[in-house]
Amino acid sequence: MSSNTSTPIAAQTIHQEFSIPFSYKVHFTHGLFDPGNKIFLNTLREDGHPGRRKLLFAVDSEVARLHPALGEQIAKYCQAYRDDLELCAEPVTITGGEVAKNRFELVEELLQQIDQHKIDRHSYVLAIGGGAILDLVGFVAAIAHRGIRHVRIPTTVLSQNDSGVGVKNGINYFNKKNYLGTFVPPFAVLNDFDFLNTLHERDWRAGISEAVKVALIREAGFFHWIADKARDLNQRDMPAMEELIYRCAKHHMAHIATNGDPFELGSSRPLDFGHWAAHKLEQITDYKVRHGEAVAIGIALDVAYSVHTGLLERPDMENVHQCLRDLGFSLAHPKLLSESGNGFNPLLWAGLEEFREHLGGQLTIMLLDRIGHGVEVHEMDRDLLDLAVQELN
Question: DSSP secondary-structure letter at 334?
Fold first, then answer.
């Protein structure tokens, strides 16, 4: 049938618009793979699939070493609920840490496993490990078959309270942090606090910096709670850590849901407070500085810079710096300084341009005007950064 329109087809436009609701849950538990604990089973049953669900696990090698019975526990759990769960292979073990995100061959290896075991869009790829492994496996799950259901099982403080509960996945490329990545929410996040018992002291502490970050930009009361609980947290008090993880994760998820830009189409990145310098510091130390440790330094730097711009009162800076020190963080590092030792490292300054590129346009840095409230700026002054870095050293 011919069209009645008099407008030429070449001058017309079809406007397409639809929305897709994203929903996922973050569970908190102990003994996730104890057959008496049905959180894992019931979480997967929520997909409404009537048959058995095929599962492929990828496990951080350090987690596998510290929990040698983990593979057997997973197998027994799946056997106990064999009408619903099918373990298609032994867990794939991957060397963890940030360096894993620099190895593209790991992406190919995981894709081969997905292909070999016929993992499809009704199957599950499950990652057990720290933030780097979750990022890597989540990225692979997002690109295989245009998206396979992905369950995150974070095993570090940082991944349980921050990176593991968000919607981002990625790997490093071209020597740039998270250059390749996706915005794909997980099917679910399952936080088993028992994994924290075997963390090295540095990893226990490092994740706390992300809680400090979210408290400083969203809730002063949470920051003061962390400062008051610093001794308990240093002594590995589990109830205190469980509360910190829960409150931090809740703030993180609330920000994603309510700030109007969950997939970061704009240039505003409040949750990247303290991160522009941290990302570059990790890289130029060959990742000897852990992410959470670098974030603590980045927070301290940006807080000091906030004072020198006149945004923040000095007593607030001193409270933040003291809290970080009480938690056991070092706020100084030789790589913050130029080779002469007289100013800001030019390599870190170059990191600002990389951060602007990562944002996709306008440079937007979160600073503080008071504890619990952030303010965005669109330029950084090199001379004031020199003063801020001298403040730390």
Answer: G
Is residue 135 a contact partner of residue 172, using CB atoms and an 8 Å limit? Answer: no
Q: At residue 294, what are phi and psi to the nearest 5 degrees?
A: -65, -35
Instruction: Say whether both 281 and 388 belong to one domain.
Output: yes
- The answer to whether residues 54 and 88 touch, using CB atoms and an 8 Å cutoff, is yes
Q: Using one digit for the tens of pLDDT, what is the confidence trace for 43-91?
A: 999 998 888 999 999 999 999 999 999 999 999 999 999 999 999 999 9
pLDDT at 370: 97
Residue 235 CA: distances (Å) to CA of 193, 228, 326: 16, 13, 12
Closest CA to 283 of 362, 363, 358: 358
For residue 346, the domain's CATH number is 1.20.1090.10
Per-residue DSSP letters for 67-134?
Answer: -TTHHHHHHHHHHHTTTTEEE-SSPEEE--SGGGGG-HHHHHHHHHHHHHTT--TTSEEEEEESHHHH
Q: What is the DSSP letter of 336?
A: G
Of 151, 183, 198, at which residue does a domain stop?
A: 198
Q: How many domains does the chain have?
A: 2
Residue 151 gets which letter from DSSP? E
Separation of first and last alpha carbons in the chain: 77
Q: Cα–Cα distance between 197 and 239 in angstroms, integer?
A: 12
In this structure, are 225 and 331 located in the same domain? yes
